[in-house]
Amino acid sequence: MKQVVVVHPYVSGYRLPFFQRLEGELASRDIRLSVAHGTPWGKDAWRADARQLPGAIELPQYTWELAGRHFVYRKLGALATRCDALILSQALHTLDSYLPVLRSSGPPVGLWGHGGTYNRSHSAPLRTMKRLFTNRARWFFAYTELGARQVISQGFPAERVTVVRNTIDTTRLAADREDVADDQLTALRKRLGLRPGRTALYIGGLDASKRIPFLLAAAESAARALPGFRLIVAGEGSQRRLVEEAVRRGEAVRYAGRVADEGKALLAAAADVLMVPGAVGLVAVDSLALGVPLVTTSDARHGPEFEYLEDGRNALIVDGAGLDGYVAAVVGLLGAPARLTALRTGCRSGAQEYSAEGMARRFADGVEGLLQPLRGEPR
Asked: Is this structure's pTM higher than 0.85?
């Protein structure tokens, strides 16, 4: 069997099902998968979502900050040379990716990444550096169609790009939602003081990119406009203290901590909308799989998965209207049952396009392409 090594920052709870499916998908094609990873650091460490993947290799890792930027180096050692293909992160701060990409010998290298830059702005020199670095790879695994178009526009060969459609285990999450019993839902609403038609949910990290102070202020304002309104916050992060202060301050916010899929499904069963005014990433897939429309803003630094949302079809995207406009959008949607039902229908139909099984198949297709020699190379 040929061996492919995928190097990842760490194995998170949402990424675990993908790696498990990818291992089986590649094995069916006579390819052995090895996953090597570091450990969570920075805001990832705050989220406390690392998981164990049997057979995965934990790498020695070094991190530091320079001029306001964080960098990480994972010692690949013989893994970088004793395999048939190597797949690394496209991120510029991941320094262990540079040498395998830039050297002229060794196994072919694929890069897995966003394609473009979503969560911060890059200077012209950094954009040039990212383009040159990316174009040295043999293959590119893009999170989304937009990311693929971005790398192709920068000169990467289109025939060597795979769009994986980054996602979570939507099959399991949708099943968990269907399994929520009426008595569970009744008990949750009684415990948290929730009213049907007046409940919102936030799922995700509690850090600066998510605009947590804005979210909490929006919840308090919505509660003033709509008596009985409650926001459930589910997640962990460096700004957890702000959420706990909001809980102590009034009745608008309930804090559920970090929840697994079963807990997420139960909370979603009680919620009418998802409130995510900050960066939207994989919570877009949560929204589709759970059938709960998401209300966000157009001016946040969204992740690639924001591409899965369509204003008025499966989400409500508020166009730079500030806090008052965002609150008005949430309250207005809660007061329009027909519109809310239409968005829920749009969520469920969109969910069919994203699954961990489909992502594993597409990724495996790209691996097979990566393993094929280029024209003129020996087979």
From this structure: yes
